[in-house]
């Protein structure tokens, strides 16, 4: 333990990387610029603060790639998954967490670890010496981003990520809304009633779309381009693609039964619980770049939200990531500066779980190297292996964009049945992955 591992960034990836390396017996220093240097999206100085959704998405480890990633992280003693489970909220088949207690718990566990220390300052340049992991996420500071560009000889890529608004539950008109998870998913009544549903008639829906399209939007600065990630499109961008687009996206009315009306809703807005107390709900899929005044006026056109009060309105921010397929090796090291690894969203993965998983791998790989070993990446037929294979060479570098984990990244499996056999095929993917990942861990 004569050498330390230094990690820049205390978000999901940095926190998980620190935990994994320390659990392998390596001394770790986390360098976090908050709270001394703030970002527009963060509110605290806690590690692993959630700034967008409070959902880790599907927890189905048998037929969903995200759920499989949950399973792998749990199997690998993942801190983020441990704390998510401890602060879980009802969300149907999803894993949603009480965001503030979750971040506080992650921070407490890291601060209590005897091999982990923290340094609160902004790192502005990539270090020449020592072992480092850069896990600065989508809001990498300008100075460090410039240093990354200088070291790689290539511009970092950027797209815009939008934040959904949060509503006070008591301000929702429950004479118009009702509680139900789509298709009544979940094993308990609480899970089956985890979402607040706000119906709209055909006329109300089209009036909403008209107002959405006409609303004042945030303008981009000169030289910036709006290359959105399709998994996190602002609702107005979706509406611009067609007036029915939202009805087949976040406002789809399927799998729901309105107890107040016998007529089927034309569209439904869903709200998901955002804290354990159930006092806050975020509007699912409603990331937006509308200006604040416009947001309030447009969202109150949803009948059940006509008197809604907002704990947080939506926003939009620049999201920076590197062209990992050209810059990183299969150990997540910068090819031109192998003392530096990258992890998390800055590598071009998208989502809390994916970012944490890449932190997990970077932390374990760095620890192994410090101990004179080489830890190979997980097999490509695992969720983690599929992600790291994608970002370190499996993706097309010229068109590289942020990616969520999905079965399309996995090596094909021989399972027949077409669309009707999809569930069986997905189960075959997860069975194969669990066997491979267990062998890799051992």
UniProtKB/TrEMBL annotation:
**Annotated protein name in UniProt:** Methylenetetrahydrofolate--tRNA-(uracil-5-)-methyltransferase TrmFO
User: Can you state which reaction this protein catalyses?
Assistant: uridine(54) in tRNA + (6R)-5,10-methylene-5,6,7,8-tetrahydrofolate + NADPH + H(+) = 5-methyluridine(54) in tRNA + (6S)-5,6,7,8-tetrahydrofolate + NADP(+); uridine(54) in tRNA + (6R)-5,10-methylene-5,6,7,8-tetrahydrofolate + NADH + H(+) = 5-methyluridine(54) in tRNA + (6S)-5,6,7,8-tetrahydrofolate + NAD(+)
Q: What PANTHER family does the database record attribute to this sequence?
A: GLUCOSE INHIBITED DIVISION PROTEIN A, METHYLENETETRAHYDROFOLATE--TRNA-(URACIL-5-)-METHYLTRANSFERASE TRMFO
The answer to keyword Protein biosynthesis applying to this record is no
Q: Domain (MnmG N-terminal): give its ranges.
A: 5-373
Q: Where are the transmembrane segments?
A: none
Which cofactors, if any, are listed as required?
Answer: FAD
The record's subcellular location field reads:
Cytoplasm
Source organism: Cypionkella aquatica
Q: Which GO terms describe its biological process?
A: tRNA methylation; tRNA wobble uridine modification
> What InterPro entries does this protein's entry cite?
FAD/NAD-bd_sf, MnmG-rel, MnmG-rel_CS, MnmG_N, TrmFO
Organism domain of life: Bacteria
- NCBIfam families (alphabetical): gid_trmFO, PRK05335.1
Per UniProt, FAD binds at 9-14
Q: What does this protein do?
A: NAD-binding protein involved in the addition of a carboxymethylaminomethyl (cmnm) group at the wobble position (U34) of certain tRNAs, forming tRNA-cmnm(5)s(2)U34. Catalyzes the folate-dependent formation of 5-methyl-uridine at position 54 (M-5-U54) in all tRNAs.
Question: A Gene Ontology MF term for this entry?
Answer: tRNA (uracil(54)-C5)-methyltransferase activity, 5,10-methylenetetrahydrofolate-dependent
Q: Which UniProt keywords apply?
A: Cytoplasm, FAD, Flavoprotein, Methyltransferase, NAD, NADP, Transferase, tRNA processing
One term under GO cellular component: cytosol
Entry's EC annotation: 2.1.1.74
Gene label: trmFO
Pfam families according to UniProt: GIDA
**Chief location category:** cytoplasm
Q: Which SUPFAM superfamilies match?
A: FAD/NAD(P)-binding domain
The entry assigns this protein to a family as follows:
Belongs to the MnmG family. TrmFO subfamily.
PROSITE patterns given in the database record: GIDA_2
């Amino acid at each position: 333990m004569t050498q330390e591992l230094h990690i820049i960034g205390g978000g999901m990836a940095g926190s998980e990387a620190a935990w994994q390396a320390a659990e392998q017996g390596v001394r770790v220093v986390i360098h976090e610029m908050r709270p001394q240097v703030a970002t527009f999206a963060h509110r605290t100085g806690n590690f692993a603060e959630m700034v967008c959704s409070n959902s880790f998405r599907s927890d189905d480890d048998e037929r969903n790639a995200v759920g499989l990633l949950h399973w792998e992280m749990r199997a690998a003693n993942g801190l983020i998954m441990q704390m998510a489970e401890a602060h879980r909220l009802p969300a149907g088949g999803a894993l949603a967490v009480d965001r503030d207690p979750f971040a506080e718990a992650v921070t407490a566990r890291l601060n209590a670890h005897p091999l982990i220390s923290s340094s609160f300052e902004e790192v502005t340049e990539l270090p020449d010496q020592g072992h480092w992991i850069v896990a600065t996420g989508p809001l990498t500071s300008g100075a460090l981003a410039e240093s990354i560009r200088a070291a790689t000889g290539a511009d970092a890529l950027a797209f815009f990520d939008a934040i959904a608004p949060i509503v006070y539950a008591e301000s929702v008109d429950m004479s118009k809304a009702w509680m139900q998870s789509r298709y009544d998913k979940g094993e308990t009544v609480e899970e089956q009633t985890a979402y607040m549903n706000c119906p709209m008639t055909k006329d109300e829906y089209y009036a909403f779309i008209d107002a959405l399209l006409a609303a004042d939007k945030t303008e981009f600065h000169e030289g910036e381009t709006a290359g959105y990630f399709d998994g996190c499109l602002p609702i107005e961008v979706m509406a611009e693609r067609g007036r029915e687009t939202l009805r087949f996206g976040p406002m789809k009315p399927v799998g729901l039964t309105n107890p107040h009306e016998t007529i089927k809703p034309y569209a439904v807005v869903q709200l998901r619980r955002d804290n354990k107390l159930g006092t806050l709900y975020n509007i699912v899929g409603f990331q937006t770049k509308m200006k604040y005044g416009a947001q309030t006026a447009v969202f109150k056109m949803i009948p059940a939200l006509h008197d809604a009060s907002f704990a947080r309105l939506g926003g939009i921010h620049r999201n920076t990531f590197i062209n990992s397929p050209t810059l990183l090796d299969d150990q997540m090291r910068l090819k031109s500066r192998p003392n530096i690894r990258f992890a998390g969203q800055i590598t071009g993965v998208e989502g809390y779980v994916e970012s944490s998983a890449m932190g997990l791998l970077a932390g374990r790989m760095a620890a192994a190297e410090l101990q004179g070993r080489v830890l190979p990446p997980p097999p490509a037929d695992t969720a983690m292996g599929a992600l790291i294979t994608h970002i370190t060479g499996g993706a097309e570098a010229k068109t590289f964009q942020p990616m969520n984990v999905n079965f399309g990244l996995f090596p094909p499996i021989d399972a027949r049945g077409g669309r009707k056999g999809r569930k069986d095929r997905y189960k075959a993917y997860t069975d194969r992955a669990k066997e491979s990942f267990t062998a890799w861990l051992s």
